[in-house]
Amino acid sequence: MAQFGSKLGNLLRQRSLQVALLLWVLISLGALGLCHGSMPLQIGPNPTNPVAQVISSSIALVFLVLEVGLVSLITRRRPWPDLAERAPERGVALRETVFLWIYGGMVLLAGRFIGIHYFGEAIAMHLNGSLVGATRVQSPNEVYTWAAYNGILLGLIPYAAFRLRGYSNQQLNLKSSNLRSDVIVILVVLAIGCFMDLTLGTSFTKLTHHQQIVGGLLTFVVHMFGTDMPIMIFIYSILVPRYARLVSPVTAFLLGAASYPAMHVFESWTRYDTLSHSVLSVIVVFLFFFPPGVMKSFLTIRTGNAWVHMWGFHAISPHVTVDTRLIVRDFDIR
Length: 334
Known about the structure:
Blueprint: H1 2-12, H2 15-35, H3 50-74, H4 90-119, H5 140-164, H6 179-200, H7 209-246, H8 249-262, H9 275-303, H10 306-313, H11 319-330
């Protein structure tokens, strides 16, 4: 217990963690101030009250920090991987990080304009209504385009480019160093996620068996290409080892967590028509996506295996358990 208290004390004294906590408080207050009592962003068909949004995000963050503690307990006898050793020297790591973010920003921005032009809505990291409920029905062609666009431009091309630069799958966090431990972590985290999804959100259980099987399989496939693989490769395979080379371990972990919402700044419900809406959109994106980013980043840094976060905390829960209802409706699966 004394050793745990000492480690916790050292962690809380980390300047980057203190800054992150302060920023979380500031953006929470900023969201309340900019909303003026009502949420102007169309987050799902029935946007929540801003106070409820802030409270639920903080509850999610606390819950996932506790889940991080559980994973730490499960893996307590496992040595920490040295992700910095998987990245090149600092100068190269910095250039690769900057260039990758420039490329990713261009892809995300182009997707917003291309999607609006052809479908009336941006190509984002999530389909309309993912996790929050849809505001419109998407055509199958739109879903396939979304999956192909993100899968190729944010998944396949970055992976191929860094493999061609000579990086191995281990250097890209795509090879397990302790398969048994990784599987245990995946099963525990997945079990918790599925339990929460199926008890707090009952939409999957209300589907017919045919919709659950056909819709669930289709959901798994399109989300694998549309968001699961791109996020895994772009952030947790390529960027996280470079963060570990450039900054302290705690700061690298926080950057990995913050990179997840950064990839979602053009979600379908964001608005950039005014300065106020623009600032609020970025704030709400971080309130919504930073907590899961914390979990994804920790799972990758703790195991050195980006597949762990994808299988345990992305591909099945929440996208199959929560988003099958969207694909069932979009593809009219009865």
